[in-house]
């Protein structure tokens, strides 16, 4: 600790004066006694000097810039095709260098184990035979695709792109809340939010010494190239980004990634399969495609394989995939590994496949399929967060502490009827972060999570030093999902002091 | 490049040019109406006719009456041409169409060009455009014109000059051929219908037509200040150096298509479109030495408009992926997929 850093510690001043820290909650920036945490002292002192009206003005400018640039998501069910910006708070979320180093190792370990689990589940199923994970939890998961058993993905990679949601409990311990191994979104906001931070706080940013995030698209392009089945032939592989189209809520991101990687953005009707090879319809006739970064749900990838009733998708795509002629990122079938019912067993997987102790904690989870766990959950429903294993985006949940008696009765019935569909956790007091609340003209604590992004190529997993910090903007809220009033913050991962 | 993307590029170019042409024509008509001492319907009716929306205006606005006062009411005609959501050619719809196509090929456009498109779209949707329209009509048209011209300039100065830009430009040029041909045709017709020829009025009208095509200065340079019906018609049809003349646009469109699909690449799709455009280019060039007057002008322009329509249809089939596909695709050019009749 240098002299200047320790000097800047002390009671909160300026922008942060009177910051109403939440009881029983870990605050990302301030420790007990209203002092900035040591690694962030300098940045906190600089931020504190920003006049509130200037922050308000910068915030409004940033929002206009996002709107003009079309950094927006489409609002479903709006016939006029209204687009909104993802609410954004200018005050960054800081992550200390030591913390991130540990997260990085933990995430790499986790992704290696999850990849081996998928290879195993779609191969010999040793982990089921060994009784480490109950077979019914895996084979009964909605994301398990028996059709894919025995198919080896080109390049041997299945989880090319993942986003792992992390939270921090009142002790400041990082915990994995869930894995997103299918089509995780949000990384475009990481890059765009950074551009805005740099424009709005150049001096603070410069002083903070933050890891860059703008090389993500380059690394993603390398990752995609590394699994190209035609790469060995020396030819220039032809990777594309597959989007459901402009009406999809994440269309901006699909377009952003295609643009920043210099790849073409295609829709399913642009592709066709001939002789188990995939081609793109171009103005110069068909052109071979060998890697597809698909941002479509796998159920709509190929009507021949998954949804015969679907007119969406590319007929024959799975045959081409099985023949090894096209790499799909992410591989279909990954849903079995990020299933909420499989999540409780990830630490066991790490020990089983890697013979290592898990580096990252996760949230203790009760599996309603197990009699003992179920009895506990039903008894303590008022304290538990119950989640349906096949729902996402904050839906299909019971927040015990805020629930009504009727809601709890309803979940009691549902759990009794289909125990496999439910897991339960104690509510974690998510950590908070100073957040600019425009309508109150003040900085207040709001709860956050963190989604780092991990790219896995043939050479193994790589963690982007940054990530999407999602923030529950409503006072007292724990729900950070963008579909339910969540916003985002730029995440500053600090370099070593 | 992907056929669907080429299609979006082409239509992006057409809507962009259409928005610019419409705002320019409305501003020129407004200026003409102020001092031409003409019956108002001679000023405003051609605006509706040029846009190809005569029958919709007749049924929706003019209650089926060909002599309805709405035909001469500048406010009603302008509201129809600017804000009507059902009209495929209103400024609101053109800007919407331009932006929708641009957003569908966001990764193809440069950041600057996209931002210019998006800002015009947001301006038009927001509170500023209606206020400007109500209080400073001229400034309103100027804003649209400048934004579209800025976009055209940014496309050329910030994008790779390769296939996507060729398709945008092909769309711009073919739309421009239509705009010039229709404006000349309608005005030429109106002049020949005037009961009493009056040199001053006629000069004002021709100048207004030229202004509507950003061509008055260029024409006066070529004609050394002499304004005549035949001179203007010849200039707008044949002047090889004027970027809105039919000859210039058809020839440039042909050059763009030659870059997209070289004439000697017989194994590539697009040969039929290319040949048809080549024939039209030769035909228009040959008109340069023929007399241009009376009904001949109308016949010439009709042929040009019909051919451009056919060429667009052929392009759609050969290069833009409009061939009947096995899978139904969602509407790809909302809000308007219909070419003008």
Summary tags:
heterodimer; A: 497 residues; alpha+beta; Rossmann fold; Dna Ligase, domain 1; five-stranded mixed beta sheet; 14 helices; B: 341 residues; mainly alpha; globular; disordered C terminus
Describe this structure in words.
The complex is a heterodimer of chains A (497) and B (341). Helix content of chain A is 29%, strand content 24%. By secondary structure, chain A is of the alpha+beta class. Among the domains of chain A are: 96 residues, 3-Layer(aba) Sandwich (Rossmann fold), CATH 3.40.50; 63 residues, Dna Ligase, domain 1 (2-Layer Sandwich). In chain A, the strands form 7 sheets. A 5-stranded mixed β-sheet of chain A has the order 5-25-24-21-20. Chain A is globular. Chain B is an all-alpha fold and 341 residues long. Chain B is built from 15 helices and no strands. In chain B, α1 packs antiparallel against α5 and α9 packs antiparallel against α15. Chain B is globular and about 60 Å long. The two termini of chain B are 29 Å apart. The C terminus of chain B is likely disordered. At the A-B interface, α10, β9 and β11 of A face α1, α5 and α6 of B.
